[in-house]
Each structure stands twice: as C-alpha cells, then as structure tokens.
Amino acid sequence: MLKLYRYLKPYLWQAILLLATIALQVWANLQLPAMMANIINNGIMAGDLDYVWGTGVGMIGFALLGSVCAFLANFLSSWIGARITRDIRGDFFVHILSLSTAEIDNFSTASLITRTVNDIFQVQQAIVMTLSMGLRAPLTCVLAIGQAIATAPDMTWIIALAVGVILGLTVLIMSIVMPKFKIIQKLADRVTLLTRENLTGLRVIRAFNNEKLEKRKFDRTNNDYSHLNAWVDVIMSLENPLISLVFNGTTLLCVWIGISLITKDFAYLGNMMAFMQYAIQVVMSFLFLTMLFVILPRASVSAKRVNEVMDTKSKITWKPQTIGKPSLKPSVEFSHVDFAYSGAEEKVLHDISFVAKAGESTAFIGSTGSGKSTLINLVPRFYEATAGEIKINDINIKDYAQNDLLRRIGYVPQRGVLFEGTVKSNILFGAPEASEEQLHLAARVSQSAEFIDKLDKKYDSHIAQGGTNVSGGQRQRLSIARAIAKNPDIYIFDDSFSALDMKTDAKLRHDLKPITKNAVTLIVAQRISSIKDAEQIIVLNQGKVVGKGTHLELLGNCKVYREIAKSQLSDQEFQQEMARSQEENHA
C-alpha cells in the first residue's frame, strides 16, 4: 500500500494545505469543551450573564471555523484522492499495454479488468480515508487526552478503559475478516471472468441451449462471492453496535464518576462537562481510526494485486534506439528458431528456418495446433523466441526500438478487431496521417468500398465497440484495410481471409498483389485455394517444417501438404493438380 503513496508527490502543496486545515479544525474543536466549562464555572456559577453571552458567541465562532475547516479538509482529501487514483489507473493501463502477450495471459484479462476497476477503487477509498482521518483522528486523540488530563485528572482512567476495549474489539474483528479479503478479490476475478466469457460466447451458448449450465456455473461462483461478502459484512457490522455500546458506556461512566466528585466540590461541574466532551472526542477519534483499520486491510490486499501487475517486468525488452541500419529492401528471416510457452514442458516450434523476401508471398499451412499463428506472432514480438534468431530487414529483431519495428508491420489477426468510432477511424487506426486517397485505396483493395458506400454516412458511419454492428466478413475486410492503409514493409495475415467467400477472397488477393510488390507478405491459411499462388509455402506439422516450396512442388514432394490438398479438393481437382505437379517437377 505504501508504494502507491508515491503518487502523492505531485500534490504535495495541496496535501500540506489539507494538513493545515485539519490541524486548524482540531484546534477549533478542542476549544469548545474548555469554553463550555468556563461558562459553567465563571458565568453561570457566578451569575455573570455578560460572560456567558461573550463566551457563547466565541463558541459559535470556533464552531463555524471548525465546520469550514472540516468542509475544506473533506474537499481536499477527495480531490487529492481522485487525482491520485486517476494517475494510478493511467499508469496501470499504460503498464498493461507494455506487457507482452505472455504476461497478460498469466494474469488473465478478467483479472486485469477487476484490478483496474475494483482494486484501484478500494485503494482510492483508503487514500481518501487516510488523508482525511489519518491526521485528524490521532491529533484529536492526543490533544483531547492532554486536555482531559488537565481538566479532570481523577477521571482519565475512564478514557484508558474505553480505548483499551475499542482496540481489543478492533483487533479481534480484523483477525477474523482479514484472511477473507483476498478470497473475496479472487472470487470477484472469477465473477468478471464468467461474465466476460458468457457475453463473448453468448451465441454459442444459445445455439447449444446451454443457458442453464452456464447459469449454474455462474450461480455457484456468485453465491460463494455473495455469501462470503455477507459474512464479512455481518462481522464488520458488529463493530458499530459494540463501539456505540462503548461510547454510551463511557458517557454514563463519566456522569456517574463525575456526580460522585461533584458532591465533594460543586465547582467540579464545569470540569466534568468538559471532560465528557474530551472523552467523547477521544472515543470518536478511535472510532474513526477503526474505520480506517477496516478499509486499510482490504485496500492493502487490493494494493498488492495492483503492485503485482505494476512490478511485473516484461520479459521482452526493447532497445531505446534501433542498433544498425535496416536494409531498404524488406525481408524476414528465421534461423533455427524454437519457441515454448512459459511453464510448458514441450516446445511449440522446433528449429524453424526460412527467408521471406520482398515482393513475394510466404504462406504457412498445417493442421490445427501445428504452430502457424504462434510462428507469425514472433515477428511483431508478441512472444519472444526461446532459441534462434529472427531478422527483419537484415537486423536482429532484438536490436529494434519498439516503434521502429512495429511501424514496419501491418498485422491482421484471425478475428477482425474493430474499435468504437467510425469506419474511417478504424481504417486509419495505424496511419492517422494518411490521405483520403490512401483511405479509399485501402477500402477498394480490401473489398470494403462496396459495403461502405451503402452505409448512410459512408466513411463517417458509426462502428460499435468490437464491430458488433457489422458482419464478420465486413470486420475482416476493414481489418485488412487498416493494414493496407499503413503501407508497411511486412504484411501479416493470420488466417485473415477465412470469413470471405471464394470470389471476394480471389478478388482481394488479386488487388492486393500490386500493393505488396515491395513488401514481405506472410499468410497463415487453412485453405489451399488462398495460398496456392504464393511464391513460398511452408508446411508445418507439430511445430516442425516438413515441407517448403511452391504449391506444385509440395504436391510432388510433401506428403502432409498432399493430404491437406486431397481433403480440400474434389477428386477431379486433385488429380488435375497432381498432373500439373508432375509436369512441373519433370520439366
């Protein structure tokens, strides 16, 4: 928790002003009991009404001063707390973006969402309470005890007794509920995960009529979360009546002991009344401190979860500046590259070597789980190769500055990802400075122009979050347009044509050819029809390269590729392709 208080530094002057207002408030409030005692002893007892009125007006002045200071203190603590948590949340978000895909997978998206929203909110509450009560309660307590001792030393043991009981109750309650806070946060993660999973897969759930099954899964976690929260709330709620009992008991004890002392000296009445006020202020101070002790343990758990992410350093380190001068002619070279996921016993990729040249398409094909997508995710360094070397434009990928590498890559994922905004803002997402001509060219080549022109506002038409108001094929085409508009050195298409019909697929690849004539094109595909014209096809099987060559060459010399072709083509088409392959290989 203390690590996060470093965010207080930019607001140091506001914090000093806050401390000053709190100190002034405490001082003003502590004047009231003494003035009340003076009214009784020097005014009422002596029959001096002028003294009563004069001192009474002074009490009103101090009360107003204390109220104004209390308002300013609450305002400043809330203002500082809100800005500190804004800064924490901003840095937290930026840090998440700096993590590699592997680190994000380790935390899970649902957990990161919970930490960003719920955990940081818990931290905000703790910061506000600490700023407002962290000085006020101890200062009031110490000064009020001092005043109480000076006013009625014979009764100070009452305060000691009340404070001891309050501390005992607080320690007992905290020891019971503290271990539960971490469990509650983990259950909150689980609720977020299930909610996100069900909303994302809602169509599949309905299609398989599994709403009841998913509801049972959610209800189990939700009930555990609710019951544990309720149990903690019940235990915590016991504190208020117990503190109230201590509070009222202290007041009654003051009156009882005070009356016995008044019988000996009636002039003790004013001192007794002042002592009661000081005792009440001491008890209230400890009440506020216990409220702080209630919030801090829970916030401490949340702060640890926030710091756990903030302290995680990405295993992928980037150079501040690119070392060396990249070749003007784009290329991608893998040399004996291995890859294994963190904690996995087996490698996903084994000894991968190939060179992809500018103006040529290099395609990757293989069965599900063969490592195709993993391989191309190494190019933008979403993951780090565990062995071997990857070169982009003749420079080792590890020698690039992050911006310098990523600006050279146009990436289109398997599932088209769109952001809330307009058609135009999505296409120009990676190239905000692109011209209208580049915008329209990207739309035409990606075969998006046809459906865009039918929209009411055309390129200014609204795109909902995640692109939910356009079809899967339209999302995919807009994602492709986004890569084209960037005009990169390297195009990566990760099975990006799967949602397109054969006609659109063929037209897109035909129009794409002139655009990529000076760039490297890497294509992951499931359909042979999408890659048969590629200059280089790499066949993967269980993470190993089992074939490399053109479509016709692989039909003749690669058994795995031949089996894929046979499964996708009709018997007549397959025989024709095999005949062409034999002619090509014999020539």
Secondary structure class reads alpha/beta
Task: Please estimate the helix content.
Answer: 55-70%
Strand order of the largest sheet: 6-9-10-3-11-12
Q: Write the CATH homologous superfamily of one domain.
A: ABC transporter type 1, transmembrane domain
Q: How many DSSP-defined strands?
A: 12
Estimate what percentage of residues fall within beta strands.
Answer: 5-15%
CATH topology label of one domain: ABC transporter transmembrane region fold
C-alpha termini separation: 74 Å
What is the tally of helical segments? Answer: 20
Polypeptide structure, described:
- The structure is a single chain.
- By secondary structure, this protein is α/β, with parallel strands linked by helices.
- Among the domains are: 309 residues, ABC transporter transmembrane region fold, CATH 1.20.1560.10; 79 residues, 3-Layer(aba) Sandwich (Rossmann fold).
- 63% of the residues lie in helices and 11% in strands.
- It has a six-stranded mixed beta sheet.
- Helix 1 runs antiparallel to helix 2 and helix 9 packs antiparallel against helix 10.
- The longest helix has 50 residues.
- It starts with 11 loop residues before the first helix and ends with a helix.
- The mean pLDDT is 80.
Concise account of the structure shown:
Helices cover 63% and strands 11% of the residues. The protein is an alpha/beta fold and 587 residues long.
Summary tags:
elongated; 4-stranded antiparallel β-sheet; ABC transporter transmembrane region fold; alpha/beta; 6-stranded mixed β-sheet; 587 residues; Rossmann fold; 63% helix; single chain
